[in-house]
Design brief:
The chain is an alpha+beta fold. The chain is built from 17 helices and 14 strands. The N terminus is likely disordered.
Length: 628
């Protein structure tokens, strides 16, 4: 086997959009960080001598946060069983995933994460920031350089010195976690390589690597403030501090990485793929719950973040004609906002609507099976979308009635009003309807549902459509509640408090349901941990739908290769008598579910293969993921 060299990644920053100056430190021009927002870049002749200059050096780490939602004209970031794209489209990594070709992230035109860019992207700024492999190693090196240069910071207060150091530790841990989420355990570089030094560290197990990430994030939490706006050094950038690294953010990510380390895949992988370990590690989950509980307790005291009210629920991802970013006060950390005002407006609207509404675009539809996770308003799950259930009250003759309120926020159903050109159009999604695949085999709706979480129900066309903006949260408050619920249930039990928070696992998931106006977890699911975890997993599917989270969850739970999670299905149905446009209580006849694709995954699909190009080759000891 050929053993190339990863030295170029770990020593020479490959992210060509960020040029190297100052002896290998990537910088970009600006006079002072204090005049700019968190995605700015700074260049100074001596980047370490005082707080202003050193913070300018740190600013580029914020600029390394990846673009997830849209980097090349169209979007492709949901790889679970949640989306189904038009089957003839071959340029999407989502389609490659469906057919088991995880190498597609290096070859597909539309992919996140990606390692294949250069000339084809809508802009190089967006494309480079979707190259997660390169940008993460670049940021890790930069964080290490900053930590090594802390002794050069002579003109700063103690608090300024702490916040510089805290950000560097946070970003080193954060970018290692981003790599580990897709590719598994990595060699943990805690220093920058000199020009004469060759990397020799082998890949570590996921759990060993997670311990070092958690230590970095714990160190960051001890140094960072809760809110930059309350600190003297944050006053000059007041209003631009929302996404800056802070104590709650660091603790939340520490808890997340520990829960991930305790999840079945990471436990199994870290113990030599021994099936006896294909279960949760209780100790890791307990520690994760403690960190997450501490983050939530601090937030409750300081009100740093808030769950958005339901009338602003769609504002978590997409806003129209607004000067404010999506995310409301719930977003803890968002994707890179580079060119956010223009990257969603056109193709993103066309991608989520049939050709009868908007002619252009690659068409993407939410799957029928995924919609079934959205249970009933009374809190009961739906067992089978084609069968009546007296316990929950679900009736396939009225499949859209009395559902979880988030169902109506995230989906457009048959007969509902949506529109283009500012005019209302009726969605004709029944079998044989004008918006279905039968009417237009290439651009019609295959699944019987349309997405309204990523594309608002009234889609404006023409120049007005430029006013749409989408920014995804990499972490938001509802996610933290659900992470805490899962970790606490495994580590402490469903109804027990943790060492850092009086809230139980059951109470945490119900906080999220209360915001949505959904009934609490039904008692029969709270008697044992395994039953409860089934509801937590369903709650994550619902609350975080279409936000790029599902693929990672299915893999860490070791469910991605198991039925029914390998299926993508469509609803076929006929309109019943007394149909009324816009009603959620229309009768439906002959509701049936048909399989569109079944994904044939094996254990090798738990991880993406490491990229295998000239600038990302492996050295001896830095092994490829199994099966690739």
């Amino acid at each position: 086997m050929k053993r190339p060299n990863i030295k170029n990644i770990l020593r020479d920053a490959l992210f060509i959009a960020l040029p190297l100056t100052m002896g290998g430190v990537g910088m970009s021009s600006c006079k002072a960080y204090l005049d700019k927002a968190p995605n700015s870049d700074i260049e100074e002749s001596t980047p370490y001598k005082n707080f202003r200059n050193f913070q300018g050096f740190v600013e580029e780490l914020y600029n390394c946060i990846p673009v997830v939602s849209n980097n090349d004209y169209h979007t492709c970031f949901n790889y679970g069983e949640d989306d189904y794209w038009e089957p003839q489209e071959t340029r999407l990594f989502a389609r490659s995933v469906d057919y088991g070709d995880f190498w597609g992230y290096t070859t597909c035109y539309y992919a996140y994460p990606s390692t294949l860019r250069g000339g084809n992207g809508s802009t190089s700024a967006k494309s480079d920031k979707a190259n997660l492999w390169k940008i993460s190693w670049y940021a890790i090196r930069k964080a290490n350089i900053g930590l090594e240069q802390l002794n050069q910071l002579v003109d700063a207060t103690d608090e300024e010195r702490k916040v510089i150091e805290g950000q560097l530790y946070f970003f080193r841990g954060f970018f290692y976690y981003m790599l580990m989420e897709w590719w598994g355990g990595m060699p943990y570089m805690d220093h920058s390589l000199s020009p004469s030094e060759n990397p020799t560290l082998p890949r570590e197990t996921w759990q060993a690597c997670a311990e070092k990430v958690a230590a970095d994030l714990d160190k960051a939490a001890s140094l960072l403030p809760i809110n930059w706006d309350d600190e003297p050094y944050g006053k000059t950038t007041l209003g631009n501090n929302n996404m800056r690294a802070n104590k709650i953010m660091a603790l939340a990510y520490k808890g997340k990485v520990l829960l991930w380390a305790g999840s079945p895949l990471m436990n199994w992988e870290s113990h030599g793929r021994n099936n006896a370990y294909a279960v949760y590690d209780k100790d890791f989950c307990k520690r994760g719950a403690d960190a997450l509980g501490q983050a939530l307790a601090l937030n409750n005291t300081h009100n740093r973040y808030e769950l958005a009210p339901m009338d602003q629920y769609n504002d978590l991802c997409v806003v129209f004609n607004s000067k404010a970013l999506p995310g409301v006060k719930e977003a803890i950390l968002q994707e890179n906002i580079t060119e956010y005002q223009g990257r969603w407006a056109w193709n993103m609207n066309t991608d989520f609507r049939p050709q009868s509404h908007i002619s252009a675009g690659i068409k993407c539809w939410p799957t029928a099976n995924y919609s079934t996770y959205f249970g009933m308003a009374n809190g009961y799950p739906i067992k089978d979308a084609t069968k009546k259930d007296a316990e929950s009250g679900y009736d396939p003759e009225y499949p859209w009635a009395n559902r979880d309120p988030r169902f109506y926020k995230d989906f457009i159903i048959d007969g509902e009003w949506c529109g283009t050109n500012g005019q209302g159009l009726e969605a004709d999604l029944a079998t044989g309807g004008k918006d279905r695949e039968g009417a237009n085999p290439q651009k019609g709706c295959y699944t019987g549902l349309m997405n309204s979480k990523l594309c608002l129900k009234l889609v404006h066309n023409g120049n007005v459509r430029d006013n749409y903006a989408c920014v995804l949260s990499l972490m938001r408050l509802a996610d933290v509640y659900l992470l805490y619920s899962e970790a606490a249930a495994v580590g402490y039990g469903v109804k027990a408090s943790t060492s850092t928070n009086a809230m139980t696992a059951e109470q945490a998931v119900n906080v999220v349901r209360d915001r949505a106006g959904v009934g609490h977890v039904v008692d029969k699911f709270t008697g044992d941990t395994e039953s409860f975890l089934g509801e937590v997993r369903r709650e994550r599917a619902v609350e975080l739908a279409f936000e790029g989270m599902r693929f990672h969850d299915l893999r860490r739970w070791m469910l991605i290769n198991q039925r029914p999670y390998t299926l993508k299905t469509a609803f076929q149905f006929d309109r019943g008598p007394g149909f009324k446009p816009g009603s959620t209580e229309n009768a439906v006849l002959n509701l049936r579910e048909e399989v569109l694709v079944e994904r044939n995954f094996t254990s090798r699909h738990f991880w993406l293969p490491l990229p295998n190009k000239d600038d990302t080759y492996l050295y001896e000891g830095f092994e490829q993921n199994p099966g690739w």
